[in-house]
Amino acid sequence: MAPFQNNPIGVIDSGVGGISVLKCIRAHLPHENLIYVADSKFAPYGEKTSEEITRRVLTVFDFLNKQEVKSVVVACNTATAASIQIVREKFDYPIIGMEPAVKPASLMSKNKIVGVLATSGTLLSAKFSALLEHHGNDIHFITQPCFGLVELVEQGDTESPELITLLKKYIDPLLKEEIDTLVLGCTHYSFLKKTIKKLMPEYIKIVDTGDAVSNYLKLVLVEKNMLNQNAKPGTTDFWTNSLDQNADKVISKLWGDNSKSFNFKGLWF
Ligand code: DGL
């Protein structure tokens, strides 16, 4: 058995949004030991420069490298757009990134009108422009940066009146344009899926990428003979640098039904 097979997998985000991806990873890979790192003290990343985001991402990788991770999932669209190339050049284990589900949405849409909710950092990135160019030929994409949503999800808010007012402000213009498919291009927004559904006609399809990314991670680990060989369930450790007294409660709420099976490790930096 290769010695690294039982090493942990790191999953990172600007904050708690990547927990939506972590849940999918846990479902796909029950025997893996997972280490989640939330950089909440520096969230949101959405309006930071690529250089600032890359500095933060490298700091988080540094922490994970000390724990001898065998792979890392950058469970953040904004961080992926800013820095995936740099970390892939620097580290030689598999690094999986996230990008808004433009391709699946373009295949799903019947009327060819697709809305994309994401951070301004993601929408303004060269990576996102290239993605639209590649998959968007006959599709009308309407992009909407959603200032303020990440901050609310960071507090564990997924359905307050304040959040709903903000969501309506972002979604109503997309409804006027008659979208039939909506891409959630930020991992924090996946926690708002239920609330968003209530604000739109039922026929509009909502697409995010947690499941596809987890599936891809599994394929990569199988292909490289890197799957954990333990028969017992894997551990899930949460690290955050949030200064919020309730950080553990927010994480527990978002982690949901699985909350019994996680270790809150506290401050990493
Ligand atoms: N979860 C991050 C993403 O997927 C949020 C970015 C932010 O912190 O603004 O883009």
Automatic annotation (TrEMBL):
Active site: 76 (proton donor/acceptor), 186 (proton donor/acceptor)
Keywords linked to the UniProt accession: Cell shape, Cell wall biogenesis/degradation, Isomerase, Peptidoglycan synthesis
Protein's name according to its UniProt entry: Glutamate racemase
Native species: Candidatus Methylopumilus rimovensis
Protein EC: 5.1.1.3
Membrane-spanning intervals of the chain: none
UniProt-listed Pfam families: Asp_Glu_race
Binding site for substrate: 13-14, 45-46, 77-78, 187-188
